[in-house]
Specification:
Creatine Amidinohydrolase, Chain A, domain 1; Creatine Amidinohydrolase; 3 domains; 6-stranded mixed sheet; 34% helix
Length: 606
């Protein structure tokens, strides 16, 4: 059993708490968080990006989704924490478990700053609530073996109109118009991505996601922006920037809690799903809550012409980097050597130790660094060889990762942050001979990818409806995968954004013109291999007013794994047209040797 779990239970007993919840979140309900907020990881040992830990005096369980079942099973082994597989038959939700297993009137504890108001409201009728106590943080602060990271800001910087395509003043006016339509006098914004989008500002407070910790209160005439970066608060030059609104007052980050307590009577627009319980408790009774989505969320998801043009440029650069890597890794693995640099800095296969997943991830980063305007990864690279590919969000560790061999599949899911935009791409690469089953399964996943990429649909179509189209080729073969088919992608922001998603859980999420979403079906055979094929796709208006998708990711598919006889003529036409464009767009950015190889990989498939 983990010592952190034992320490937590001792604190719970001292405080009279019967059950304690530790989610994966920060003060803003973010999916990706600063190291300071990784309390659930610290206590449980599970490193996935999604999961909630529930601890009682005698039992502990961690809820996570299908992307992490294999990883969580491994990391929780021997910890004293039971894996609760979300949405699997017979597995209750946290809410259901609590109401069934914990007696009514018991004391339920959590840090109210990282639990949403909507979630916590569901507990109030059944339990006594202690929301003003961060027990996990107290353990971390006193734990002698591991020091808690500091919660300190990165510098805030602006991005130009040539990339954003719209001024902050214009965006604020649109938000105010939406507030007026909803009858709101004020609007509380807590989402880091939406605040960064609204002000055309970025930071580095979260790894690989260029956001900064901030809150905003938008009024009918003025705004208050609360930031952690004190240098930005005191920067006398910031208001001379053409794109910074004169109506915005910049204030210290934590002052927002006092200002909320002193809000004037009126109607406040906020999302109860995104605001924390602690923030909601600050609001005076004279403030009427209008619970609705942040208007900036949808505005941000529908990209303008400038954003679309810029992100297309980013994807061409990124496609060139990934293509160069694929050609290089195939040769390096055949030679059975670890990568090194020659005198000119060119990546080679040197006579040294074997090539591993972690080395592969590192050297893909090097290829991206060669592209002009590359800033950072958009998430930690997933380089999963062989059976590790069946772990959907596997992350290689230098000391323990697998060595690549000239056989089987390497699943590579990665992305970059460029001056022009954010990318996300997955390719499953044949490093050597494949079995007939591997080829069949690869082609089935490709058919699923093409099914979504080729879809034509009327306005009002939801992500859940499109998800069924994507899965049909796999369903027909008696197969499926345990994750969503697509997620929204930000513009120089988070690689995962809403409201657009293509998933059985897509619900009422409507896919609209101008949205950029991923298309990433997969297939995972535990203990054997995994396959995932991902492009980003742009929703555009086609002939007759119907909506359709345009691919904006450019990189060849694995030719050795495709079984042409399994493809329809329509699918072959899509595939050949896509490959023709891959060569046209990438060839100018490649060296002659790689371009020659790419030409053979994109030849017509009959």
């Amino acid at each position: 059993m983990r010592k952190q779990l034992e320490d937590l239970r001792r604190l719970m007993k001292d405080e009279g708490i019967d059950a304690y919840i530790i989610p994966t979140a920060d003060f803003h309900g973010s999916e990706y968080v600063n190291e300071y907020f990784k309390c659930r990881e610290f206590v449980s040992g599970f490193t996935g990006s999604a999961g909630t830990l529930l601890v009682t005096s005698q039992w502990a369980g961690l809820w996570t989704d299908g992307r992490y079942f294999l990883q969580a099973e491994d990391q929780l082994s021997g910890s004293g924490i039971q894996l609760m597989r979300e949405r699997e038959p017979g597995v209750p939700s946290i809410d259901e478990f609590l109401k069934k297993e914990i007696p009514q009137g018991s004391c339920l504890g959590f840090d109210g700053r990282v639990v949403s108001y909507r979630e916590a409201q569901g507990y109030e009728e059944h339990f006594k609530i202690r929301w003003d106590i961060d027990l996990a943080g107290r353990i971390w602060d006193t734990w002698t073996g591991q020091e808690r990271p500091e919660f300190c800001p990165s510098p805030i910087y602006d991005i130009p109109l040539s990339v954003t395509g719209e001024s902050a003043d214009s965006k604020l006016n649109r938000v105010r118009q939406a507030m007026k339509e909803k009858g709101a006098d004020m609007h509380l914004m807590t989402s880091l991505e939406e605040i960064a989008w609204l002000y055309n500002l970025r930071g580095n407070d979260v790894e690989h996601t260029p956001v900064f910790y901030a809150f905003a209160i938008i009024g009918s005439q003025t705004e208050r922006l609360y930031v952690l970066d004190e240098g930005f608060i005191s920067d006398a030059e910031r208001k001379t920037k053409a794109d910074f609104p004169e109506t915005t007052n910049i204030l210290p980050y934590y002052k927002v809690f006092d200002d909320l307590k002193n809000l004037s009577a009126g109607k406040l627009l906020l999302s109860e799903e995104r605001i924390s319980y602690a923030m909601a408790k600050c609001l005076p009774e004279t403030v009427e809550i209008i619970d609705d989505a942040n208007p900036a969320e949808l505005m941000k998801a529908i990209k303008n012409r400038t954003e679309i043009s810029c992100t297309k440029q980013a994807h061409i650069k990124d496609g060139a980097a990934v293509t160069q890597f694929i050609y290089w890794i195939k040769n390096a693995v055949v030679q059975g050597a670890k990568p090194a640099s020659d005198a000119e800095g060119k990546l080679t296969a040197a006579d040294c130790d074997g090539l591993t997943e972690a080395y592969a991830a590192d050297y893909l980063l090097e290829f991206r660094h060669r592209q002009k305007g590359f800033r950072d990864l958009s998430f930690a690279t997933i380089a999963a060889y062989g059976s590790n590919g069946a772990i959907v969000h596997y992350s290689p560790e230098q000391e323990t990762c697998a060595e690549l061999k000239p056989e089987g599949f390497l699943l590579l899911d990665s992305g970059g942050q460029y001056d022009e935009g954010t990318t996300d791409i997955t390719r499953t690469i044949a490093l050597g001979p494949l079995t007939e089953e591997m080829k069949t399964n690869y082609t089935l996943v490709l058919k699923s990818h093409i099914a979504l990429a080729s879809a034509r649909f009327p306005e009002g179509t939801t992500g859940a409806q499109l998800d069924k189209i994507a899965r049909k080729p796999l369903y027909d073969a008696g197969l499926d995968f345990n994750h969503g088919t697509g997620h929204g992608v930000g513009h120089l922001l988070s690689v995962h954004e809403g409201p657009n998603k293509i998933s059985p859980l897509g619900g009422s999420s409507i896919i609209r013109e101008g949205m950029i979403t991923s298309d990433e079906p997969g297939l995972y055979l535990t203990g054997q291999y995994g396959i995932r094929l991902e492009n980003e796709i742009l929703c555009v208006r086609g002939e007759g007013g119907m909506l359709e998708f345009e691919p904006i990711t450019w990189c060849p598919w694995e030719r050795k794994a495709i079984m042409p006889e399994m493809l329809t003529e329509t699918e072959k036409s899509w595939l050949n047209n896509y490959h023709r464009k891959v060569y046209e767009k990438l060839q100018p950015l490649l060296d002659e040797e790689t371009a020659d190889w790419l030409k053979t990989q994109t030849e017509i498939i009959y």
